[in-house]
Write a structure and sequence with these properties.
The protein is mainly alpha-helical and 192 residues long. The protein has 2 domains: 49 residues; 136 residues, no CATH class. The protein contains 7 helices and no strands. Helix 1 packs across helix 2, helix 4 runs antiparallel to helix 7 and helix 5 packs antiparallel against helix 6. The longest helix has 27 residues. This is Accessory gene regulator B family protein. Keywords: Cell membrane, Hydrolase, Membrane, Protease, Quorum sensing, Transmembrane, Transmembrane helix. GO terms for molecular function: peptidase activity.
Length: 192
Protein backbone atom coordinates (compact mmCIF):
# COMPACT_ATOMS: atom_id res chain seq x y z
CA UNK A 1 0.00 0.00 0.00
CA UNK A 2 2.76 2.35 1.00
CA UNK A 3 4.54 2.02 -2.37
CA UNK A 4 1.38 2.62 -4.39
CA UNK A 5 0.46 5.62 -2.24
CA UNK A 6 3.99 6.96 -2.66
CA UNK A 7 3.83 6.52 -6.45
CA UNK A 8 0.48 8.33 -6.66
CA UNK A 9 1.70 11.15 -4.43
CA UNK A 10 4.96 11.50 -6.41
CA UNK A 11 2.93 11.74 -9.61
CA UNK A 12 0.85 14.59 -8.17
CA UNK A 13 3.96 16.33 -6.85
CA UNK A 14 5.85 16.05 -10.15
CA UNK A 15 2.85 17.27 -12.14
CA UNK A 16 2.61 20.33 -9.90
CA UNK A 17 -0.82 19.40 -8.51
CA UNK A 18 0.35 19.47 -4.89
CA UNK A 19 2.98 21.37 -2.92
CA UNK A 20 5.97 19.69 -1.27
CA UNK A 21 4.66 20.53 2.21
CA UNK A 22 1.42 18.61 1.46
CA UNK A 23 3.25 15.44 0.40
CA UNK A 24 2.78 13.47 3.65
CA UNK A 25 -0.90 14.41 3.87
CA UNK A 26 -1.60 13.13 0.35
CA UNK A 27 0.48 10.02 0.87
CA UNK A 28 -1.46 9.23 4.05
CA UNK A 29 -4.76 9.93 2.28
CA UNK A 30 -3.91 7.59 -0.59
CA UNK A 31 -2.77 4.89 1.85
CA UNK A 32 -6.03 5.05 3.81
CA UNK A 33 -8.10 5.17 0.61
CA UNK A 34 -6.36 2.09 -0.79
CA UNK A 35 -6.60 0.15 2.47
CA UNK A 36 -10.29 0.95 2.99
CA UNK A 37 -10.97 0.31 -0.70
CA UNK A 38 -9.50 -3.19 -0.54
CA UNK A 39 -11.50 -3.99 2.60
CA UNK A 40 -14.75 -2.68 1.11
CA UNK A 41 -14.15 -4.52 -2.17
CA UNK A 42 -13.60 -7.79 -0.29
CA UNK A 43 -16.71 -7.20 1.82
CA UNK A 44 -18.80 -6.37 -1.23
CA UNK A 45 -17.56 -9.51 -2.95
CA UNK A 46 -18.46 -11.67 0.05
CA UNK A 47 -21.86 -10.00 0.47
CA UNK A 48 -22.77 -10.59 -3.17
CA UNK A 49 -21.44 -14.16 -3.28
CA UNK A 50 -23.31 -15.06 -0.07
CA UNK A 51 -26.43 -13.11 -1.09
CA UNK A 52 -26.18 -11.05 2.11
CA UNK A 53 -26.29 -7.50 0.77
CA UNK A 54 -28.89 -6.25 3.28
CA UNK A 55 -27.06 -7.91 6.18
CA UNK A 56 -23.85 -6.25 4.98
CA UNK A 57 -25.46 -2.80 4.87
CA UNK A 58 -26.87 -3.29 8.38
CA UNK A 59 -23.45 -4.42 9.65
CA UNK A 60 -21.77 -1.25 8.37
CA UNK A 61 -24.68 0.95 9.51
CA UNK A 62 -24.06 -0.26 13.07
CA UNK A 63 -20.32 -0.93 13.02
CA UNK A 64 -18.90 2.27 11.54
CA UNK A 65 -20.46 4.83 13.91
CA UNK A 66 -20.05 2.72 17.05
CA UNK A 67 -16.46 1.76 16.29
CA UNK A 68 -15.62 5.35 15.32
CA UNK A 69 -16.79 6.84 18.61
CA UNK A 70 -16.12 3.93 21.00
CA UNK A 71 -12.69 2.88 19.77
CA UNK A 72 -11.36 -0.64 19.74
CA UNK A 73 -8.44 -2.80 18.79
CA UNK A 74 -5.85 -1.20 16.52
CA UNK A 75 -3.35 -3.64 15.09
CA UNK A 76 0.22 -2.71 14.20
CA UNK A 77 0.23 -3.98 10.60
CA UNK A 78 -2.22 -3.42 7.77
CA UNK A 79 -2.39 -7.07 6.70
CA UNK A 80 -3.29 -8.30 10.20
CA UNK A 81 -5.89 -5.55 10.48
CA UNK A 82 -7.35 -6.51 7.09
CA UNK A 83 -7.50 -10.20 8.00
CA UNK A 84 -9.15 -9.57 11.39
CA UNK A 85 -11.60 -7.08 9.87
CA UNK A 86 -12.63 -9.47 7.09
CA UNK A 87 -12.95 -12.37 9.55
CA UNK A 88 -15.12 -10.24 11.86
CA UNK A 89 -17.29 -9.23 8.93
CA UNK A 90 -17.60 -12.84 7.72
CA UNK A 91 -18.46 -13.96 11.25
CA UNK A 92 -21.46 -11.62 11.27
CA UNK A 93 -22.53 -12.63 7.75
CA UNK A 94 -22.26 -16.36 8.45
CA UNK A 95 -23.81 -16.18 11.92
CA UNK A 96 -26.91 -14.64 10.37
CA UNK A 97 -27.72 -18.18 9.18
CA UNK A 98 -28.11 -19.66 12.66
CA UNK A 99 -31.45 -19.98 14.34
CA UNK A 100 -31.74 -18.26 17.69
CA UNK A 101 -35.03 -17.18 19.18
CA UNK A 102 -35.71 -13.43 19.05
CA UNK A 103 -35.94 -13.37 22.85
CA UNK A 104 -32.42 -14.77 23.21
CA UNK A 105 -31.16 -12.49 20.44
CA UNK A 106 -32.51 -9.38 22.15
CA UNK A 107 -30.86 -10.47 25.41
CA UNK A 108 -27.54 -10.91 23.58
CA UNK A 109 -27.97 -7.45 22.03
CA UNK A 110 -28.75 -5.75 25.34
CA UNK A 111 -25.87 -7.55 27.07
CA UNK A 112 -23.41 -6.61 24.30
CA UNK A 113 -24.57 -2.97 24.24
CA UNK A 114 -24.12 -2.83 28.02
CA UNK A 115 -20.60 -4.26 27.64
CA UNK A 116 -19.82 -1.70 24.93
CA UNK A 117 -21.04 1.10 27.22
CA UNK A 118 -19.00 -0.18 30.17
CA UNK A 119 -15.85 -0.66 28.08
CA UNK A 120 -16.08 2.80 26.46
CA UNK A 121 -13.72 4.48 25.55
CA UNK A 122 -10.85 2.57 24.01
CA UNK A 123 -8.25 5.13 23.04
CA UNK A 124 -5.59 4.77 20.38
CA UNK A 125 -2.02 5.95 20.88
CA UNK A 126 -1.96 7.12 17.25
CA UNK A 127 -5.00 9.37 17.72
CA UNK A 128 -4.76 11.43 20.87
CA UNK A 129 -8.06 13.05 21.83
CA UNK A 130 -8.25 16.26 23.85
CA UNK A 131 -10.94 16.97 26.47
CA UNK A 132 -13.14 18.91 24.04
CA UNK A 133 -13.07 16.07 21.50
CA UNK A 134 -13.76 13.53 24.27
CA UNK A 135 -16.97 15.35 25.16
CA UNK A 136 -18.06 15.47 21.51
CA UNK A 137 -17.25 11.77 21.04
CA UNK A 138 -19.06 10.88 24.26
CA UNK A 139 -22.25 12.65 23.12
CA UNK A 140 -22.09 10.95 19.73
CA UNK A 141 -21.36 7.61 21.37
CA UNK A 142 -24.39 7.99 23.67
CA UNK A 143 -26.59 8.80 20.66
CA UNK A 144 -25.28 5.70 18.88
CA UNK A 145 -26.01 3.50 21.89
CA UNK A 146 -29.53 4.91 22.33
CA UNK A 147 -30.15 4.59 18.58
CA UNK A 148 -28.99 0.97 18.64
CA UNK A 149 -31.24 0.13 21.60
CA UNK A 150 -34.12 1.68 19.69
CA UNK A 151 -33.19 -0.28 16.55
CA UNK A 152 -32.98 -3.57 18.46
CA UNK A 153 -36.39 -3.16 20.10
CA UNK A 154 -37.94 -1.97 16.83
CA UNK A 155 -36.63 -5.03 14.98
CA UNK A 156 -37.84 -7.25 17.82
CA UNK A 157 -41.38 -5.83 17.71
CA UNK A 158 -41.45 -5.94 13.90
CA UNK A 159 -40.33 -9.59 14.14
CA UNK A 160 -37.29 -9.05 11.90
CA UNK A 161 -35.32 -11.92 13.43
CA UNK A 162 -32.56 -12.02 10.80
CA UNK A 163 -31.81 -8.32 11.17
CA UNK A 164 -32.03 -8.55 14.95
CA UNK A 165 -29.51 -11.40 14.92
CA UNK A 166 -27.22 -9.34 12.67
CA UNK A 167 -27.35 -6.51 15.21
CA UNK A 168 -26.52 -8.89 18.06
CA UNK A 169 -23.56 -10.43 16.23
CA UNK A 170 -22.24 -7.00 15.23
CA UNK A 171 -22.49 -5.81 18.83
CA UNK A 172 -20.57 -8.92 19.95
CA UNK A 173 -17.80 -8.21 17.42
CA UNK A 174 -17.56 -4.60 18.63
CA UNK A 175 -17.51 -5.77 22.26
CA UNK A 176 -14.72 -8.24 21.52
CA UNK A 177 -12.59 -5.68 19.66
CA UNK A 178 -13.07 -3.13 22.44
CA UNK A 179 -12.01 -5.61 25.12
CA UNK A 180 -9.01 -6.69 23.04
CA UNK A 181 -8.15 -3.02 22.51
CA UNK A 182 -8.24 -2.39 26.27
CA UNK A 183 -6.03 -5.44 26.88
CA UNK A 184 -3.55 -4.32 24.22
CA UNK A 185 -3.46 -0.79 25.65
CA UNK A 186 -2.86 -2.14 29.16
CA UNK A 187 -0.14 -4.47 27.85
CA UNK A 188 1.55 -1.55 26.08
CA UNK A 189 1.05 0.65 29.18
CA UNK A 190 -1.30 3.08 27.50
CA UNK A 191 -3.44 4.27 30.34
CA UNK A 192 -6.92 5.43 29.44
Amino acid sequence: MEKIAETLTNFLLESGEIAEEDYQIYKYGFTVMLEKGIFLALCLGFAISLNKEIISILFFFIFIPLRSFAGGLHLDHYITCLILSVLSYLFVLLMSNILISPEVTILISVFALMCISLTYPVENINRKVDDKEKKVFEKKFCRCIIGNYFLVFLLFFLQKSLMLLTCAMTFLVITATMILGKIKNKYKNIMV
